[in-house]
Amino acid sequence: MAVYTEVPDAELSAFLAAYEIGTLLSYKGIAEGVENTNFFLHTTAGNFILTLYEKRVNEGDLPFFLNLMEHLARRGLACPQPVRNRSGEALGRLCGRPAVIVTFLEGVSVKAPGVDHCAALGRALAELHAAGRDFGMSRANSLSVGAWGPLFAQAGSQADAVSPGLSERTRADLALLETSWPTGLPGGVIHADLFTDNVFFIGDALSGLIDFYFACTDALAYDLAICLNAWCFEDAGRTFRKDMAAALIAGYEAVRPLEPAEVEALPVLARGAALRFMLTRLVDWLNVPPGALVQPKDPREYDRRLTFHRQARDARDYGRG
Ligand SMILES: Nc1ncnc2c1ncn2[C@@H]1O[C@H](COP(=O)(O)OP(=O)(O)OP(=O)(O)O)[C@@H](O)[C@H]1O
Ligand SMILES: N[C@@H](CCO)C(=O)O
Q: Is residue 108 part of a domain?
């Protein structure tokens, strides 16, 4: 359960008093998620999410994330909206942490997506990229290829205790990716963490996207590569579902066709995306803060995906004919 920061009732009441969101009827810590502390708030005015930003979120980046959510909603994308307090501010402080209330988005995430979910995700991802095109702010991707070596150094010699041979495999992947990472691909605002838990459906229809706290300015096709990893593997990373990948890419290209350079770069982008999530999971796995209510995610699931990516030859192996 991702609650890193306990919030005493009195502090919560004082914080909420600054907002016009009715009277608190109930609240609870949210079980899902690993990055930030989230509470579900039920008030006389409706449902809201209270987020306290933790380790990986830099406070200076919050205006980018909050403005982005507002911008995307203006462009018609369904995503949570920051709630401003009586002074007109969206960003507050609670228990020493930056804190924001956002609107509640209806829908449920799918645990085991199918081909149709992947097709819908592809369309939504391309729509997100299109909606972000005229967003005026930018933020470098702080978890791109340049960050992977330092992340690996944090795990150091403990990697092999998590999975035999992981150090050596990671060293080789890093060396290859650091020299072959593509530059100059079409760029813009990307979500950068569009895992199944961040995409909501009502029935079969995609109802919205949440969790924009890794959003940044980077290659658009890298976002697609992240989704290929997050949505198109089964059995904890052992089985690649080419049919789901094909549906994801086709859904994306129905809105925004990929350029030839992006198609060519897909295998290396997918390999890099897998390494990025393997590394952040590895560091988190080895460093659970004392007292935190969180279930860290298993880095071995991404080590297994890397086995697939290492043998992939071109985009056809990812279902892009
Ligand atoms: N605006 C929202 N509307 C409805 N539910 C939400 C909203 N924001 C968060 N949630 C719920 O809280 C959970 C955790 O939120 P979120 O994914 O933002 O946390 P996180 O710690 O950043 O997680 P992650 O591990 O995906 O980075 C979500 O899976 C969802 O169930
Ligand atoms: N989506 C990430 C966690 C949040 O960044 C993962 O599954 O590793």
A: no
Same domain flag for 86 and 131: no
Phi, psi of 43 (to 5 degrees): -125, 175
Q: What is the pLDDT of residues 8-50, one digit of tens each?
A: 999 999 999 999 999 999 999 997 878 899 999 999 999 999 9
Tokens matching residue 181: 């990472």
| Same-domain check for residues 136 and 28 | no
**Are residue 314 and residue 186 in the same domain, yes or no?**
yes
Question: Given ligand 2 and candidates 280, 288, 294, 295, which is best to mutate, with the most ligand atoms within 8 Å of its CB?
Answer: 280
The per-residue pLDDT for range 84-128, each reduced to its tens digit, is 999 999 999 999 999 999 999 999 999 999 999 999 999 999 999
Nearest to 4 by CA among 57, 83, 82: 57
The question of ipTM being above 0.90 is answered as yes
Print the domain residue range for 217.
115-318
**Ligand 1 pocket test target in 34, 35, 38, 79 with most atoms within 8 Å of CB:** 38
Nearest ligand, CA 32: 1
